[in-house]
Amino acid sequence: MDSKTKHKLNTNWNQETKWIHAGCEPEKTTGAVVPPISVSSTYAQSAPGVHTGYEYARSENPTREAVEAGLAALENAKFGLAFSSGLAAEQAIAQQFTPGSRVLVCDDVYGGTGRMFRKFFAPHGIEFSFVNMSEPSFFTEHQNEKNVSAIWVETPTNPTMKMVDIEKAAQLAKKIGATLIVDNTFCSPYFQNPLALGADIVLHSATKYIGGHSDLVAGVVMTNNQELYDKIKFVQFAIGAMLNPFDCFLIHRSIKTLSVRMQKHSENAVKVANFLAEHPKVETLYFPWHQKSPFYELAKKQTRGPSGMMSIRLKGAMSDSTKFLQNLKVFTLAESLGGVESLVNHPEKMTHASVPEQLRKELGIDSQLIRLSVGIENADDLIDDLKHALSA
Ligand SMILES: Cc1ncc(COP(=O)(O)O)c(C=O)c1O
């Protein structure tokens, strides 16, 4: 929804304050401070075509409008849109790519994103070039491109935690007339704001930090660009992958605690990363906020801190990784990330199994790579759990 016209916030408020109040004006009839969950699929009209502004819930729904105001506030954006999954949100954006044009995508983009581009959009004449955007040469090599309709960035990337300089990507996009889209799922809006750095569209799998409790699947899009908003909203209405009222309510509720959850994720992640960095069985730690990371300077410049995401490469073979994963007790072996509970994932066999084998090899997604989503439990318990499993 258009957060400017329907839910006015004091622009001087800090982000945490806005997130508590965005989309939460007291309800008109009762004064309820929490917007009710509005389940009606349709709305009465007093004469044909004469209605309250609400006709049918695929196009308008008060609970979705309320959460979309909250979502806009998360990224300090004019507009927010809520979809039934992160991939549904991505599909609505990708629907804007013009056949015959090219899209530059960062090479270790989330496996499902790459799969959607390769299997569903490439056959319609859109060319996807998967490129390493973390190399400085990326910004010089593409300066004279003529036919690039979009640049698709994920930063940090999933699962090897490479970072892309959003400001430089925005300059390049502007120069070559492309739309810059940034998947901000891994950092959350608490730590990184791509629109402020020049991106045209930011998206999140709200299944992750924004939802934060591993109890729903959702995707969100934020932008300041009216034309892009209108086009993406039209896909939401015309294709119909909008978010249902119950999950809109849950997301809206989660937005209010995002800042405190992220602070704890971050604090725990730093402690866990420091432990793993020194452990003799860990060959490499992939955590941009660690001083030894090649992305340390960019992480400091572009973000306000780490979320709970990191990866490690273990010494040894597949059997050692399996033993490690099976011996963890607090970390649950499961796909997904960003929930209050700590999760661990084996990208080669799980989240990134759909990435072509050759590309997986090039990216270093192999049997020894493990991705951690550090939750908000007590950090000592998390470190004890890792210590025990690493010694197994
Ligand atoms: C970075 C990133 N973007 C997008 C998605 C897709 O989101 P969803 O699973 O909500 O469809 C994921 C899912 O893991 C992801 O990790």
What's a concise summary of this model?
The chain is of the alpha/beta class and 392 residues long.
Could you walk me through the main structural features you see in this protein, from its secondary elements to its overall organization?
α5 (111-121) links the parallel β2 (102-106) and β3. α3 runs parallel beside α9, α4 crosses α5 and α12 (318-327) packs antiparallel against α14. The chain is globular, with a radius of gyration of 21 Å. The protein is an alpha/beta fold. The chain folds into two domains: 3-255, Aspartate Aminotransferase, domain 2 (3-Layer(aba) Sandwich), CATH 3.40.640.10; 259-390, Aspartate Aminotransferase, domain 1 (Alpha-Beta Complex). The N and C termini lie far apart (52 Å). The chain has helices at residues 3-6, 15-21, 62-74, 86-94, 111-121, 137-141, 166-176, 226-239, 245-255, 258-278, 296-302, 318-327, 357-363, 379-390, and strands at residues 79-83, 102-106, 127-131, 148-154, 179-183, 201-205, 219-223, 282-286, 309-314, 332-333, 343-345, 369-373. The protein is built from 14 helices and twelve strands. Pyridoxal-5'-phosphate (PLP) binds at residues 85-87, 110, 112-113, 154, 158, 183, 185-186, 205, 207, 217, 219.
